Amino acid sequence: MTQLYVRTGIHFANREEALEHIGTEMLAKGVVKASYPQALKQREAVFPTGIALEHHAVAIPHCEAIHAISPAIYLIRPDNPVFFQRADDDDEIAVSLIIALIVENPDAQLKLLRQLFSGLQNSQRMTAMLNADSAELRKVFRETLIEPQPEAASTR
C-alpha cells in the first residue's frame, strides 16, 4: 500500500529548497534510503519534472527505485508557486502542486506516472485539489488520482 503524505501551508524560495524539504521529510518518515535526497536532486537537474497543464502546472519529482524503502507519495501544495524547469523544454514554469513519488518497483513507477498524468489532464480535478482545504486535499487526491472511479460506473 502506498503511503500518502500531504503538506500545505509551506513556502519554498525555489525548487532546490522544495527538493531539500522532500528529501528530509521522506527520510524522516522512513520510506527512503539515505541516498534518496541527493538522488532526487541529481535526477531533477538532469530530467526536470515541471509539467504544464491546461490551466495550472505541477512537478512530479522522483528518482530511481533503488533509493526507496517503501512506496509513498508526498503531495505538497505550497503557499506560493515554485519555479521548476519544464520536462519538455528549457523554460521554467510556476508549479502550484508538487507530487513527489517514492516507488520501489520501476514498472509500478511508470504505471503510476501514467495514471497521474492522465488524471492531472482533467482541469476540474486539478482545480478541486488546488481549492480543497488541507483536510480535504488528501481525500480529493486519493479519489481523483490514485483510486479514480469510472465516472459513468452506475446507470441506476
From TrEMBL:
<dbReference type="InterPro" id="IPR051541">
    <property type="entry name" value="PTS_SugarTrans_NitroReg"/>
</dbReference>
<dbReference type="InterPro" id="IPR002178">
    <property type="entry name" value="PTS_EIIA_type-2_dom"/>
</dbReference>
<feature type="domain" description="PTS EIIA type-2">
    <location>
        <begin position="1"/>
        <end position="144"/>
    </location>
</feature>
<protein>
    <submittedName>
        <fullName>PTS galactitol transporter subunit IIA</fullName>
        <ecNumber>2.7.1.200</ecNumber>
    </submittedName>
</protein>
<keyword id="KW-0808">Transferase</keyword>
<dbReference type="Pfam" id="PF00359">
    <property type="entry name" value="PTS_EIIA_2"/>
</dbReference>
<dbReference type="InterPro" id="IPR016152">
    <property type="entry name" value="PTrfase/Anion_transptr"/>
</dbReference>
<dbReference type="GO" id="GO:0016740">
    <property type="term" value="F:transferase activity"/>
</dbReference>
